[in-house]
Amino acid sequence: VQLQASGGGLVQAGGSLRLSCAASGSIITSSVMGWYRQAPGKQRELVASVTSGGTPNYADSMKDRFAIDRDNARNTVTLQMDRLKPEDTAVYYCNLKNPRWSYQKYNYWGQGTLVTVSS
Q1: Distance in angstroms (rounded) separating the CA atoms of residues 96 and 90
Q2: CA-CA distance, 93 to 66, in Å (whole number)?
Q3: Which of 43, 51, 70, 86 makes a 20 to 30 Å CA pair with 29?
Q4: Count of CB atoms situated within 10 Å of the CB of 78
């Protein structure tokens, strides 16, 4: 499985960015897709994820500003980020992993895309 992320860049505080990730390879339809981020000196954290059925899960600090969407037919996941803050500056990673109920365990990462929010 390969994950190709795009859409990062530099934006002013209060602005918007849209990240996209395309998955290719032997993809299991029931996989969970999502986005994580890692700021300098910090641990990687969940931003948002979405099940194959479309159920989203957001980090509390982002649920009012970010929206995740998934296209199962195209194996893509997008993250719309609005009202961005300087603290949102991080490398954002696309992720594809097994659902919790699956006996088959897997966890794939994309290469990361940098989002920089200037104040």
Answers
A1: 19
A2: 15
A3: 43
A4: 19
Question: Which residue type is seen at 40?
Answer: P
Q: Select from 1, 115, 24 the least CA-distant residue to 76.
A: 24
Mode of pairing for the β-strands spanning 90-97 and 107-109: antiparallel
**Cα–Cα distance, 23 to 77 (Å, whole number):** 8
User: CB of 68 within 8 A of CB of 49?
Assistant: yes
Query: Do residues 58 and 45 touch, judged by C-beta distance below 8 A?
Result: no
pLDDT digits (tens, 9 = 90+) for 23-70: 999 888 899 999 999 999 999 999 999 999 999 999 998 999 999 999
CA 57 to chain centre: 11
Sign of CA dihedral 45, 20, 53, 64: positive
Going by DSSP bridges, is the β-strand pair 2-6/113-118 parallel, antiparallel, or unpaired?
unpaired
